[in-house]
Please model this.
Amino acid sequence: MDKPEHSDNTEKNTKNDRSIWIMLGTVSAIGIEFAACTIAGFYLGTWLGSHLGNRQVWVLVGVLAGMVVGVAGAVGVIRRIMRESDE
Model:
């Protein structure tokens, strides 16, 4: 009785496992980048508020600016991934 060859399945599973980890890492990096930009915006807004007055407004502006930068970074990462997947 001959043993069936499983090398094709094993190779496909290994490739799928790698792509799952790559996707997981990418999503994690996007989330961390967004959170870091938002927190940096909070601290920048706090610093500006302490120097310029009207702290609440500057904190809000800083957080919103941080969120915009975080979304822009996420869009950049997603665009790069889409270009790489098209190649």
User: Anything to note?
Assistant: The chain is about 90% helix and 0% strand. The chain has a mean pLDDT of 85. The CA atoms of residues 8 and 14 lie 10 Å apart.
